């Protein structure tokens, strides 16, 4: 199996560093970015799809790197049909020479990496995450980058794989089934982990910040589902 990571496993002088890195990864929160959801039958995904996925990931990683907060969620892209092509595109738009060590890309399927802590984040999930409880440690994000709304696609994938799934709690002015962009969901979940660790704020503060940044990054993006919901705290 082909897996690409940003660690030189052949560097003997880095053995201890690599061991410490693995230990940290086992304890830290993890995003499993599921490309099998967005590209289920594409052996060689089109360039524009890879570009869109890479851009969303870089948006999140740049925001994440700009913060001094820790721990930073690890990012593992899984079920990638062409790891080299995606990694190459990531490096083209990433402003540094190498991606962070916490980022890796694998062609192995999602079920290789899931455990009983994993939760598939889906706007179509019947259950909402509890904002008063800790966020899930292992968070699955479907990497479908498409201007069209495709209802129930992530829910059906999670159910077929018998995975736990949940959506965001209701946010003021947004329908709970609104399909937020990948970078928005990842920022909101990362900030929720930080807020929980710091004891300052919680889910709603994290999500409102993520949505605000999302609107700044994507001012042209259409809100698909209008709502007059109130914050459900």
- Count all strands and give the number: 7
| Number of helices, counting only DSSP H or I runs of 4 residues or more | 7
- Beta percentage is 5-15%
The CATH topology name reads Alpha/beta knot
Largest sheet: 7 strands, mixed
CATH architecture annotation name: 3-Layer(aba) Sandwich
Helix content: 25-40%
Low-confidence stretches: 7-23, 226-233
What's the SSE pattern?
EHEHHEHEEEHEHH
| Average of pLDDT | 82
Shape: globular
Rg over CA atoms? 17 Å
Describe the structure.
- Helix 4 (83-93) links the parallel strand 3 and strand 4.
- The radius of gyration is 17 Å and the shape is globular.
- The longest helix is centred in the N-terminal third of the chain and has 19 residues, at 47-65.
- The chain is built from 7 helices and 7 strands, in the order βαβααβαβββαβαα.
- The chain is α/β, with parallel strands linked by helices.
- Helix 3 packs across helix 4 and helix 6 runs antiparallel to helix 7 (203-217).
- The model is unreliable at 7-23 and 226-233 (pLDDT under 50).
- The protein has one domain: Alpha/beta knot (3-Layer(aba) Sandwich), CATH 3.40.1280.
- It has helices at residues 15-27, 35-38, 47-65, 83-93, 153-160, 182-198, 203-217; strands at 3-5, 30-34, 74-78, 103-106, 118-121, 138-142, 164-166.
- Helix content is 37%, strand content 12%.
- It has a 7-stranded mixed sheet with strand order 1-4-3-2-6-5-7, sandwiched between helices.
